[in-house]
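Worked example

This section walks through a single chain of length 430. The input is the sequence exactly as stored; nothing has been trimmed or padded.
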Amino acid sequence: MSQNRRYTPKVDVDWWVIEVDTIKRFGLAIFILLLGVGAYFGVRFYLDYRARVAGSTPDATAGENEGPERTGYFIELEGDVKVKKKGSFEWVRADRKIGLNSGDLVKTGSRSSAHVLLFDGTEYTIKSESLTMIQSTVEDPKSNVRNIAVRVSSGAIDLSTAKKNRPESTTELSSPTASTQLGEMTQAGVSYNPESLETSIQIYRGEGEVVSGGETLRLSSLQAVTVTRSQQIGPKVQILPPPDLIDPANLKQLAVADPLKELVLLSWREVSGARYYHLLLSDTALFSEPAVDFKLSFRDTSVRVSGLAERTYFWKVAAIDQDGREGQFSRVRRFRVITANLQLKHFDVDPPTLSVDNPQLSGNIALVRGKTEPGVLLTLNGEQVSVDNDGGFFHPVILTHAGKNELVFVAQDTSGNESRLVKSVYAEFY
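Given that input, the structure is written out below as C-alpha cells.
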C-alpha cells in the first residue's frame, strides 16, 4: 500500500498546478514588458512621423550620397497657401513656422502668394494659383557644396539668388519642359502654363543657362525666352529695365485731413521704349490682392490715387514694351497714410514696445520670435517683418558669416516714434 501511496496522483496534480501558475505569472510579466516596449517605439514612430509632417526635422537626410538636408522657411504668406510634406497625403495650411525640405509641395490658391527663404539665401515668391516642389535643399558635409532645386508644375515663381558659398554650388529652377541653372546674385522669373505646356524664363539681373530638348541657351540681364511644348527654345528677346520710383519716398508718412478723399500722388521716371506702365498698389507686401492694378499710357509717369484708408501701402511699377512684354518691376516701396487731425489731437511721443526672444539656430538660419505693438512698421536689418494682429512676429533670417552676426530690429509707430533693439547671434559655420 505504501508503494501505491508513493505514486498517488495527488502529488502529481499539486506539482502541476503550481507550475501552471508560475508560467502564467511569468507570461503575464513578459506580455506587459513587450506591451511597454511596443508602446514606447510606437509613440516614438508616431512623434517622428508627426515631426516630419510638421516640418520640424531640419536635419533629416535627403540621401546617402547627397549629404545632410537643410531647411527653408516661409517669410510671408497671403491668402490660401497649403503645404504637403514629403511622404504625406495631406495638404495642411501653411504657417511661417513650418520648415520646408526636399520633396515638399507648396500650393497657392487664387489671390494668394508665398515668400520662401531657403538656407543658402535664395528667396522665392510663389505667385497665385501655382504648384511648386522643393526638389533639393542639400549641402555636402565635406565640400560644403550646396544643391538647390525647385520645380514649378503650374503658375509662376520669381526668385533672387544669393552669393555662392562655393563655385560648384548650384541653383536650379525647372518646369516640365525646361530647366534653368542660375548664377549667383541673380534675379529671375519662371512661369509654366499647363494648358499650352510653354515655359517662360526671364533673367532680370545676373545670368542663367536654359536647357531643354538637348538645347542650351545662356541668358544675361534683361533677357527672356520661351520654351515650347515640344521643348524647342525660342529666340532670345530683350525686356525693359524697371522704372525708378520718385514719390512718395520709401517709408514716407503722409498726414492728410481725410485719407479716403485725399489724392495721393505716385510718380516714377520714364523708361525708354515703354508703351505702357503697369502699376500695382496693395496693403500687403506680396500684392496677391492689389487695391490698384492698372496699365497707363507711356505718356503717364504719374497717377493720383484716392480712397486709401489709414494704413501702410506697398507699390511698384513695371514698363511694357511695344510687343506687350512686361519688364522687371521696380523695387517695392512703402508709405503710410495717417489722419493729420488725429495726429495733432493725440500727440504720441512714446516709442512702441519691442521685445525679441533669443534666436534659435537652424543651420545658418536664425529663427526670430518676438512681440511689438499691432500696426507698427517692423524691420530687421532693413527688411520688413510681418507683424500679426496681436503684435507677435516670427521671422527666419540668413546669417551671413561665421562668428558674430548682429540682428538690428526697428519698430516705428504711426506717430514716427521708433524703438531699436540689437541681438547678437553666433554662427559656428556658414
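What to look for: Residues 1-18, 45-67 have pLDDT under 50 and may be disordered.
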